Amino acid sequence: MGEQQSPINIGRTVATPDLLDQLEIGWRPDRFTVQEGPEGLRFAPRGTHTAHLSDQVYRLVNLHFHRPSEHWVRGRPMQAEMHAVHLRVDDRLHACVVAVFLDLGDAPETGGAGEPPTWIDLPALLPEGGFHRYEGSLTTGEFTENVSWVVMREAVTVADEGLRAFVRSRADHARPVQPLNRRFVLTTG
Ligand SMILES: [Zn+2]
Questions:
Q1: Could you give the CA distance from residue 16 to residue 188 in angstroms, rounded to a whole number?
Q2: Over residues 4-28, mean pLDDT
Q3: Percent of the chain scored above 70 by pLDDT?
Q4: How far apart are alpha carbons 37 and 43 in whole angstroms?
């Protein structure tokens, strides 16, 4: 295992004001095909969604969900976390994963089966505000260290009842947080 593993606890960060201009996310509401993989359910978009990060273009290949969150903030996990996995258009060996903390509310379980939704309003799952950025790894499979992580700072309250029931009942587990080692976490100013 390498020295740049994910997830991590986000504690001390380096304020980097011009970071905000280096990210542009192009997401739309879309239909998703649900695929059962060895690591859990993956939602593959029908259409094209992009993330531009530091002059590189990445295309969304899947969404998936973890409960509790994989990344921690100042020593604590959040309720849940969405991972939007994008691969670089000119080098599919490199990924940009946009991570969003999800607030599922504290309403009691609806008792629904938690069927995976096939229509997701993706822009509604992107919070306003800044983000953290660091170099790390996939958190499943071979833990390949090929991921530029973007972790949105604010949590999003999931309004879609079906998605909320799904994440409550069927989200993937979380890998334990890994040592930061010699890395820095940058944050928008
Ligand atoms: Zn994940």
A1: 5
A2: 97
A3: 96
A4: 10
Q: Distance from the CA of 83 to the center of ligand 1, in angstroms?
A: 5
Distance 59 CA to ligand 1 centre (A): 16
Separation between Cα atoms, residue 138 and residue 86, nearest integer Å: 12
Ligand 1 centroid to residue 21 C-alpha, Å: 25
Where does the pLDDT of residue 108 fall: very low under 50, low under 70, confident under 90, or very high at 90 and above?
low
Question: What's the CA-to-centroid distance between 182 and ligand 1, angstroms?
Answer: 23
105 C-alpha vs ligand 1 centroid, how far in Å?
Answer: 21
Distance from Cα 64 to the centre of ligand 1, integer Å: 6
Measure 167 CA to ligand 1 centroid, in angstroms.
13
Ligand 1 centroid–CA 109 distance in Å is 23
Distance 66 CA to ligand 1 centre (A): 6
In the CATH scheme, what is the homologous superfamily, with its name and number, of domain 9-187?
Answer: Alpha carbonic anhydrase (3.10.200.10)
The residue among 104, 180, 103 whose CA lies nearest residue 149 is 180
Sketch the domain layout of the chain as residue ranges. Answer: 9-187
**pLDDT confidence of residue 107:** 63
User: Residue 134: which pLDDT band, with cuts at 50, 70 and 90?
Assistant: very high
Model confidence pLDDT, tens digit, residues 152-180 = 999 999 999 999 999 999 999 999 999 99
Interatomic CA distance for residues 57 and 135, integer angstroms: 16
First to last CA, the chain: 32
